[in-house]
Design a protein that fits this description.
heterodimer; A: alpha+beta; Alpha-Beta Plaits; two-stranded antiparallel ribbon; 7 helices; globular; B: mainly alpha; Formate dehydrogenase/DMSO reductase fold; two-stranded antiparallel sheet
């Protein structure tokens, strides 16, 4: 009955990032930090200590000029589904401080329950999780500009990209107020998606054939969401993490760099 | 000055000498306590860990001391369950080492977590899928068992033993100790394994991930096996070291040799299992994830994890001590025995090191490089802290409790004839009383 009315349809929010469009400008990182009250320190030179939810990596094809090529890879949390919701981080957390939401496909992080064992940090192969090594401190008056929809995190807990979940909650509240059961594709978009000047990031429901993300990658849910589009790939597909962030590229070396292969092995 | 507290029939160094040694070790302990307080008050920014190295020196130390403390559960298992009665002469010390190791592990865990005041969440919000949850429950329960096993030793102090209640309590606890030994063995089989499972279930980390039997990765079984093999080696090492420092024999050779023999066969079979596991992992598990064995062992700038580490762990610190310990000549030759027990202890520590730190050092994303880490002085100090604490506990326990039942027999006190007669009688009385107490447990 509910299915027929379109209620409670299981969603699987995901992201598609076109690496051929990404210029590595870092606007997605900045937007993410501002939107999600991500703290920063005066000296951010050691990136292993940075609290960045979205991080842009640079990689090259290793060839000399004129064949040299560069690609930038924005890396949010992959919101892995694993097998049956057992993503690498969710299954290891001893205090159930991180959870896989089967209704949205989003991996949550409960900051007030996390006690900072960092097992999830160790388990995540994407380094999407960061630890608060210091107390969050903002420059004077900047605290007034914090997003009231997002809680700040204390020292000693792990945090990560939430796919701007508060925006989903806001969109759902609005829909509910307007007596709608579903939200439109553009009603819930992450801050990085909206900030990208090149339009490289697309966000939506991978289960919804009307959404652009679905059309771009054509996920095959019978095979763990693998993309049918030959130009689409996921990072470290072979590990079985079943991530919901897809990448697009027309360059063969970029697609191959998405995973590990033993010598002379085809992807 | 404290002679009234010292067990009858044994000789101890003068109190000032003991006090001086205690102060030196206490200074190291205080250094560790200072670092611990820094970490608790200022946070984990006092360490050199980072987002790539979320697990580091402390987790290795945790896994290491738990493996080395495995002598307690396995010796208890052999004595009380299998019935190797000779081991009653080393079980007290094995329990003491286990108690030190496990209390140290709990302390290190309390320092290691980002929000120490929320440590109880692991019990309250327990996630049954997490290996750490099982570790936390089993570890805490087993520490309780070790406290119960250690308590009778404390109660056997000469002065405490004079109180009838404590005397009877100690006697009755000895009688039911087999139940606790069995409980301890059961709990240890699980938490030692779960610690192996910590890396084994991380399917996002190809270096640590292992195939499963039901819900348990192979590393689960290997960790239990290696702890049972190398834990007793460390117990022997600690016994021998205590003998060297005390300048006298404390445990008869036949006891050491029996434990060494069992340990040797455990180590030998473990190493065979480890080699099979490594071959399967290198040829099946890792290639399925896109890695070859040599991808994990690269001695290049940015990594010191060359293939030497695997050879050192499995060959030099695994196979060599195993072969020494399974031979009669190896066990009976002091130099070889020393070599074997030291190598075995290093081997299990090395195994824990690679299963914690190398797991995180290996780059998984193709556009990343090897992660390097060197601990801060606060991490080093807090890791040395349990060692100092352990030495202090051994010093106090050895001085005031009858830890080594054979000590009086092996080291008769030479004093004027009348005194000798009295002391020998006292020693005999003490020995007979002790044997009488242990008699029901033997049955």
């Amino acid at each position: 009955m509910k299915e027929a009315q379109g209620h409670n349809k299981t969603k699987k929010f995901g992201m598609v990032i076109d690496l051929d469009k990404c210029t590595g400008c870092g606007a997605c990182m900045v937007a993410c930090m501002a939107e999600n009250n991500v703290s920063f320190r005066e000296d951010e030179s050691d990136k292993q200590l940075s609290t960045a939810w979205m991080r842009v990596y640079k990689m090259t094809n290793g060839k000399p000029f004129p064949d040299a090529d560069v690609c930038y890879i924005p890396r949010p949390c992959m919101h892995c589904e694993g097998h049956g919701g057992h993503s690498p981080c969710v299954s290891v957390c001893p205090a159930t401080a991180t959870d896989y939401d089967n209704n949205t496909g989003i991996v949550s992080q409960i900051y007030t329950r996390c006690f900072g064992c960092r097992y999830c940090l160790a388990a995540c192969p994407y380094h999407a999780r960061v630890f608060n090594w210091w107390d969050p401190v903002w420059p004077a008056d900047m605290e007034k500009m914090l997003n009231p929809d997002v809680s700040v995190r204390m020292r000693g807990v792990v945090e990560k990209c939430s796919f701007c979940y508060h925006r989903y909650q806001r969109a759902m509240e609005k829909a509910h107020y307007e007596e709608r059961h579903e939200i439109e594709e553009d009603e819930y978009q992450t801050s990085c998606t909206q900030a990208c000047p090149a339009g490289a990031i697309t966000f939506g429901d991978l289960n919804n054939p009307d959404h652009t993300v679905n059309q771009l990658v054509k996920p095959d849910n019978r095979h763990g969401g693998r993309p049918k589009n030959p130009q689409a790939f996921r990072l470290l597909e072979r590990l079985g993490t079943n991530p919901k962030v897809y990448y697009l590229s027309s360059r063969e070396w970029v697609i191959r760099a998405g995973d590990n292969y033993v010598k002379n092995e085809n992807h | 000055m404290d002679s009234a507290l010292i067990p009858k029939g044994v000789k101890r160094c003068p109190l000032p000498q003991f006090g001086a040694a205690l102060m030196i070790v206490s200074a190291v302990l205080l250094w560790g306590v200072f670092a611990m307080l820094l970490v608790w008050f200022k946070g984990l920014n006092q360490t050199n860990m980072n987002n790539a190295y979320g697990f580091a020196l402390w987790i290795w130390a945790d896994l290491g001391v738990i493996a080395l403390g495995g002598g307690a559960f396995f010796t208890g298992f052999l004595k009380y369950i299998v019935g190797k009665d000779e081991l009653k002469n080393i079980i007290n010390f094995a329990v003491l080492i286990g108690f030190i190791c496990y209390s140290s592990a709990l302390l290190i865990l309390a320092i290691d977590i980002g929000q120490p005041l929320r440590g109880w969440f692991i019990f309250w919000h327990a996630n049954v899928h997490s290996m750490l949850t099982e570790v936390a429950f089993c570890l805490s329960c087993y520490f309780g068992v070790l406290c119960i096993e250690y308590l009778p030793l404390v109660l056997e102090n000469r002065q405490i033993d004079k109180v009838p209640f404590f005397h009877n309590l100690s006697h009755n606890m000895h009688e039911v100790m087999a139940v606790f030994a069995a409980t301890g063995a059961f709990l240890s089989f699980f938490h030692q394994g779960s610690l192996g499972g910590v890396a084994g279930v991380m399917f996002g980390r190809p270096f640590g991930f292992r195939e499963h039997i039901l819900i348990w990765p192979y590393s689960f079984f290997l960790f239990t096996w290696s702890a049972a093999a190398c834990g007793p080696c460390f117990t022997i090492f600690a016994t021998k070291l205590t003998e060297k420092i005390a300048g006298k024999k404390l445990v008869k050779d036949n006891v050491i040799e029996l434990l060494a023999k069992i340990s040797g066969w455990m180590l030998f079979t473990y190493i065979i299992a480890k080699i099979i596991d490594t071959i399967y992992w290198a040829n099946v598990t890792a290639p399925a994830m896109g890695f070859t064995l040599m991808d994990f062992y690269i001695s290049s700038p940015g990594s010191f994890y060359g293939i030497w580490i695997l050879i050192l762990e499995v060959g030099v610190c695994g196979l060599v001590p195993a072969l020494i310990l399974i031979t009669d000549k190896g066990r009976k030759t002091p130099a070889l025995l020393w070599t074997a027990i030291i190598l075995a202890s290093i081997g299990v520590l090395l195994n824990r090191w690679v299963m914690v730190l190398q797991v995180l050092a290996v780059p998984v994303l193709t556009f990343e490089t090897w992660n390097m880490y060197f601990p801060s002085w606060q991490e080093i100090a807090t890791t040395i802290l349990p060692i100092a604490y352990g030495i202090i506990l051994v010093m106090i326990s050895y001085r005031y409790m009858p830890i080594f039942p054979q000590e009086a027999e092996l080291n008769p006190i030479e004093e004027p004839e009348t005194a000798v007669t009295q002391d020998t009688e006292a020693g005999e009385e003490a020995k007979q009383a002790q044997e009488a107490e242990l008699a029901p447990a033997k049955g």
